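Researcher: Let's do a round of design. I'm pasting the structure tokens now; please hold your answer until I've finished.
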């Protein structure tokens, strides 16, 4: 029973975490968008590479390239001309 529940949880996590964010110019991976705060690639994980407010690769870093409200590469800048792109791998 525990194995079945764990397998189901892995399947649901895999299916729901397919929305990814990339730097439009370089193609650099910037994590998975979503609410799973325990996933290592999640932008919602405050301790992960893509969710930490201190990581240079995080859209949550207010002083970083991808999180600053002044950066041309940040989704937090309403006037950015090169914001990251969102790829939904669930779409067919």
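Researcher: That's everything. Go ahead.
Model: Designed sequence:
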């Amino acid at each position: 029973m525990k194995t079945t529940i764990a397998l189901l949880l892995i399947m649901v996590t895999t299916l729901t975490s397919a929305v990814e964010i990339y730097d439009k110019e370089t193609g650099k991976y910037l994590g998975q968008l979503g609410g799973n705060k325990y996933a290592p690639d999640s932008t919602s994980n405050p301790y992960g590479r893509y969710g930490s407010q201190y990581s240079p690769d995080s859209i949550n870093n207010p002083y970083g390239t991808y999180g600053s409200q002044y950066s041309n590469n940040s989704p937090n800048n309403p006037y950015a001309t090169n914001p990251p792109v969102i790829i939904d791998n669930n779409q067919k």
